[in-house]
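During the reporting period the student researcher (J.K.) took over the structure-prediction task from the postdoctoral fellow and processed the backlog of single-chain submissions. One of the processed entries is reproduced below for the supervisory committee.
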Amino acid sequence: CAPKDPALLRAGRIDRIEHHLISPAYAAQVPAGHASIADRLAYYHVPGVSIAMIHDGRVEWAKGYGVADLASGRAVDEHTLFHGASLSKTVNAVAVMKLVQEGKLDLDKDVNEQLTGWKLPASDFTKETKITLRRLLSHTAGMSVRVMGVGFAESGPVPSLVDFLNGKAPATQPVKVVEEPGKRFYYSGGAIAISQLMLEEAAREPYPKLIDDAVFAPLAMGESTFELKLREDWRGRTAPGFKDAKRVNGPERVYPAMSAAGIWTTPADYAKVVMEIQRAASRQESKILSLEAVRQMIRPYVANAKSASPHYSYVGLGMFLGGKGPNANFFHAGSHAGYSCAYVGFLNRDDGVVVMTNGDDAFDLVAEIVQTVAREYGWKGYEFIPPPKAAKVASATTGAAR
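J.K. obtained the following structure tokens:
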């Protein structure tokens, strides 16, 4: 008989997830006898992973596995800080929608009518169709600078946000319109960086402070930050990023386009953002977002490109959308050199999961964990949708990251 005690039920679920990983249908199947998280960390050469499980509207459990830092041997636990890369974009969208609710920003007004200092350069592509905040957040603005690269060394020159947007050294590429707005989904970290400047000007605060005030404080997120330079006590809790056992990233690399790629967090802390969106979407008591704000975020704007999965996803504001009916969900993945992470949250039930790793291009492992969680928690018909493989495109710095 299944245990009725909640603690025993939870322990059984965790044990089965830890030792019996499965793959999505589109991927190579996990070999029998080598299906534990420990086995798969070794197989994929990923040092560590951290998981937070959302069930019935709360974080039911959070655990870390493997090693946070290969140099010291420090283990991953639920308080280990990971670089969330593009998971930053969902947090940014929540902050934007808060200021939209307050009448400080407009989703559909020309961004150049809202920006006061820097202006988006004029383009033949925008003579008839203007760039709006809605287009920036939904990656339908046709903007350049698709990925954020490996950041900048904090010990060297780091561009200001305006210098980043202008492509001024040490940045290498200006943010500009490169195709007709609204034509298609065209992923752009540069577009999100423009929204960061709009937020800073509207709130009259530096980005880390305004996100603290608008998102982290209301949600009691005490283990998340966008600060470029981490405090020493926080640095000691970070998981550096690794590729083939070589350190390739960590708090020594910084991302001035914080809105697109700058968050440090834990899965359990980040899960609070997912649950805030779920609460607002289901008319529960939310702390930041209104129902109308979330409706704008979860509106499907345009079909995304196919990924390794046969399933299409759609782009919303600061997130992607997948599934139908009971499996309707919102999600985002993130990666830098040395980091791979993803979250999924459901819209018709209060379940979800956040997975963060300090391994380069580790989405096969992330997919196995999420798909196993889906089996264990009865998400019938759900299949993990991986991010599309990024083409080798010019970035704002060097390297490739999504």
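The committee noted the following: Confidence is low (pLDDT under 50) at residues 390-402.
J.K. will present the remaining backlog at the next meeting.
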